[in-house]
# Entry
Amino acid sequence: MAHLLQVGAGSGGMPVLDMICRDPRLTKVTLIEPDVYKPHNVERHLFPLSAVGEAKAVLAQRWLLERRPDLVVELLPCDLCDSAKQAEIEAVAACCDIGVCAADNEPAKYHWDALMRRHGKPWTLGEVLSGGIGGFVHWFVPGGPCYGCVASHLKRTVTVDKAPTPDYSQPGGPVHETTIPASKASIQTIASLHALITLGLLEDPAHYSPGFTTLLLTLQRVPEVFEEGFRPYRFRIPRAADCLICQARPTPSTVEELDVALDQALARLEDA
Amino acid sequence: MSLLDSEAGKRRLLSVEIPVIERYNEGRDPAFQIRMSRLGGTLVLRYCLKPGHNIYQLETRLVSSYPTVPPETRVLTALKHCPHLLEGQTLCLWRQGSTRAGSRWDPARFTCIFAVQAAWRWLACYEIWHETGEWPLPEAK
# Structure
């Protein structure tokens, strides 16, 4: 009897959701996914071409119920960071047993991390690298490293995705990234690892110990990036003592006191 | 996390960002202290820097999705068109990547003062470029 809260049912999130929900321990799923299925999704997705134009959340619900009619599937077809939906999202997070993050952008990952920490829930995250050259799976438990700790550690120690340097001398706004889509096979491989780790964590969150907190699996040899393809790297990333995201610092205890203290501080700095 | 609307954002401001700004201001000439004001869901830091011979007025914006999204800094003092300067005299301080690997900004380790220091370094480069025509530092990462 477990309740899964997942954000994202894209090309990476949907196979994870499918694999996890085959497990009979899962009895309820809440899926946060605002997007509509588009023609360019078909190449890497589980859904057929005929489903283009429908909401991904609805398609995911149909997919799951065709395989697990006993499963309760609830949908939140909204953006995870939508401020108008936070109360609803918080309420679900408070009663779920485990979270899965299949969001593809950094603000959403940090937002999810904060949500899970606030409610003391274990969660997992899968990330496929540009071009499908490999991918990460991370797992998180209350009191352990947060996504900020992990991202900061990996940023300093792991070199991936060496794109050519954009031309910064061209004014006209932020330089757009060029990302190379990953293949369905690469996505499925990382999704399988993500599902395995999620199911392992679900078994016993307090004692889960696969020997790493982050797993990187390379899927291709890429000169200057990965020396070998199909090589796992296991990282044990500790909680960072100086992490600005998760380390508690003394602040007023109530929201009202917090507002007053913030107003006073901002007034001091306005007059500086 | 929304900076001014969420409890987490307010706690970050009160426990991390505001204390480092106050430390930066402590003992500093008032003309070079950071002043902070609200602009909708954004916090605006206004300050002056003097990396060499000239004084520049700047503005660093902490948008509502800060610190996940890095601060944006622009120079209010008119500059000559130069490399690493984006529209609206916004400084190109770090790659604007949406992926972890694609951006130098690290919300777990950096505060808004990092952006002020990065702007100081950018302006020092600008002054050298102004005299020599060469930007002395490699591309942003």
In short: Chain A touches chain B through 54 residues (CB under 8 Å). Residues 113 and 147 of chain A are 6 Å apart (CA to CA). Residues 2-270 of chain A form a domain with the Rossmann fold fold (CATH 3.40.50.720).
